[in-house]
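During the second year of the project, the team shifted from modelling isolated chains to modelling whole assemblies. The rationale, set out in the original proposal, was that interfaces cannot be judged from single-chain predictions alone. As a representative example for this report, we include one of the complexes processed in the last quarter. Its constituent sequences, exactly as entered into the pipeline, are reproduced here:
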Amino acid sequence: MTIKEVCEKYDITADTLRYYERVGVIPNVTRTAGGIRDYQETDIAWVENAICFRDAGMPVEMLIEYVKLFQEGDSTIDARANLLKEAREAIVEAKKKYDIALEKLDYKIGRYEIAQKTGKLTWE
Amino acid sequence: MTIKEVCEKYDITADTLRYYERVGVIPNVTRTAGGIRDYQETDIAWVENAICFRDAGMPVEMLIEYVKLFQEGDSTIDARANLLKEAREAIVEAKKKYDIALEKLDYKIGRYEIAQKTGKLTWE
DNA sequence: TATTGACTTTGAGTTAACTCCAAGTTGTAA
DNA sequence: TTACAACTTGGAGTTAACTCAAAGTCAATA
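Output from the structure prediction step:
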């Protein structure tokens, strides 16, 4: 799969894909004899994970660390498990904050809907 | 309430509070005769909202727009309601992505827990 | 009232995460 | 076999959101 096809599949720019590879968010991608990226199944799986975790606010730095540990082999299993648990906690905490904001928003939106009938907000 | 007290109450730096005021994430804060910030109830309510919405990933730019509309008065009620609904949708979408990442993480963590018993990952 | 610490502003600097550019290479279609 | 789009690298530039520094002002205490 060419870089272009991966871009289109995941709606991400080629620059970002190359950046991820350069800094180590994903391991080095398979290349053709001429040096052009030719994404294999496993390369794509790494891309998919990277996008998924970035979308959940996981820092690039953390993904780099995970890939680094992964490449060091089985001796880093504990470290990787801890890293994933830490990431999990961060996401759970972030989600709580999102819920609080949603509550606040829903309250405000409700008040605006009343206001839209009268043309005025009674307070705020 | 002094800037320091507000900082401590919301675990945010004075620089960030001043920055929020400077760029318009919150309206101008009440001052003493000497020009020193003296946060009143309403000032604090704005701070609280700003922090809450920023924590949910709402861009500073959007908060600035809301404050600007708010200051223009009742004629902007529709615009403000739309802005809040847009913000709400963004948060709902972000939460979905967080859930997908959580699923992936839970799967991986589960596999690592098995691996930790055997000392090896069977695949990945 | 003098000192000390917290406050003020303006503007510059930092960080994370891309995003763009220039100059050169690869691969395909005519 | 040449033209041309799509690829490559290394490095510089951008954006959002702070964060810091310098130089000066305010206010509580000794």
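Chain B touches chain A at residues 49, 52-53, 55-58, 70, 74, 77-78, 80-81, 84-85, 87-88, 91-92, 94-95, 97-102, 104-106, 108-109, 112-113, 115-116, 119-121, 124 (CB under 8 Å). The two ends of chain B are 55 Å apart (CA to CA).
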